[in-house]
Design brief:
The complex is a heterodimer of chains A (115) and B (114).
Chain A lengths: L3 E4 L2 E4 L5 E7 L5 E7 L5 E9 L2 E4 L7 E3 L5 E6 L8 E8 L10 E2 L3 E5 L1
Parallel strand pairs in A: 2-11
Antiparallel strand pairs in A: 1-3, 3-8, 4-5, 4-9, 5-6, 7-8, 9-10, 9-11
Chain B lengths: L2 E3 L4 E5 L4 E3 L2 E3 L5 E7 L5 E7 L5 E3 L5 E5 L4 E6 L8 E8 L7 E3 L3 E6 L1
Parallel strand pairs in B: 2-12
Antiparallel strand pairs in B: 1-4, 3-9, 5-6, 5-10, 7-8, 8-9, 10-11, 10-12
The chains are: A mainly beta (115), B mainly beta (114).
């Protein structure tokens, strides 16, 4: 049972380059989330999705876009990377029913450096 | 706005000693409360959660936490710390009407002395 899988694990970009981070979950969860983690700031929500084809902004959405074309996948895009986007990115998913209702399960993270 | 405060950035305890990590939250109604642990280079793993009912909750790895509504707190405890408990610990608050969104504290880094 893979749970939440993030690709890639590491990436280095130059300022202005674009990239897409992929999150895949195999738990049939309805909700998915993207966070960024910076030292001393905990995790901050970038965007989230409550279902296929639906996305919404979180606390720090500027400079990021997301898409959820399939229930199991949630993509995070950086159109023009900036050094301020150097961070560790985590994807999570949660269910609205069952024993694991309202519990977020996290991927292993993507470490992104923007030079 | 909802917020979570973890007052201690770093805590160092000796192996075998007891541990208490503090967490205070700001939210007007009954929240959902969580403690997650993150080992270096890893994702977050759920230690325990509180949704309702008994205010003392048990989690994995021998951890427990107590919800105190009057103090808006959800402190994490362990009676005897093991070297493998060294990690970063995050408290988080959620609510039924937030679309399962969570607000995280800044984290507490636990160091264990042998």
């Amino acid at each position: 049972n893979a749970g939440v899988t993030q690709t890639p694990k590491f990436r280095v970009l130059k300022t202005g380059q674009s990239m897409t981070l992929l999150c895949a979950q195999d738990m049939n969860h309805e909700y998915m989330y993207w966070y960024r983690q910076d030292p001393g700031m905990g995790l901050r929500l970038i965007h989230y999705s409550v279902g296929e084809g639906t996305t919404a902004k979180g606390e720090v959405p500027d400079g990021y876009n997301v898409s959820r074309l399939k229930k199991q996948n949630f993509l995070l895009g950086l159109e023009s990377a900036a050094p301020s986007q150097t961070s560790v990115y985590f994807c999570a998913s949660s269910s609205t029913a069952g024993e694991s209702k309202n519990i977020q399960y996290f991927g292993a993270g993507t470490r992104l450096s923007v030079l | 706005a909802q917020s979570v405060t973890q007052p201690d950035i770093h805590i160092t305890v000796s192996e075998g000693a007891s541990l208490e990590l503090r967490c205070n939250y700001s939210y007007g109604a009954t929240p959902y409360l969580f403690w997650y642990v993150q080992s270096p280079g890893q994702g977050l793993q759920l230690l325990l959660k509180y949704f309702s009912g008994d205010t003392l909750v048990q989690g994995i790895k021998g951890f427990e936490a107590e919800f105190k509504r009057s103090q808006s707190s959800f402190n994490l405890r362990k009676p005897s710390v093991h070297w493998s408990d060294a990690a970063e610990y995050f408290c988080a608050v959620g609510a039924q009407f937030w679309g399962n969104k969570l607000v995280f504290g800044a984290g507490t880094i636990l160091r264990v002395k042998s």
